[in-house]
Amino acid sequence: MSERLVLEVQGMTCTGCEQRLAAAVRRVEGILAATADHTKGVLEVALGSEADPAAVAARVAEAGYAVTGRSEARS
Length: 75
Ligand SMILES: [Cu+2]
Description:
Layout: E1 3-10, H1 15-26, E2 31-37, E3 42-47, H2 53-62, E4 66-72
Copper (II) ion binds near residues 13, 14, 16 and 17.
């Protein structure tokens, strides 16, 4: 079981940002997958059952980007 989380993220300017952010988020406990798109300013995360969405947002901030919005898509 996984839940898809879509975050609006400000601050990405290139594909390097996408890779850096996605790699940082993948290291959060319980995260199954993460992909970022700097042209849309979006981070998509697949959360396992034990993952904490707040930890994802905290990791985004640690990586130097800002979460500006969030939408939990239907699975
Ligand atoms: Cu960049």
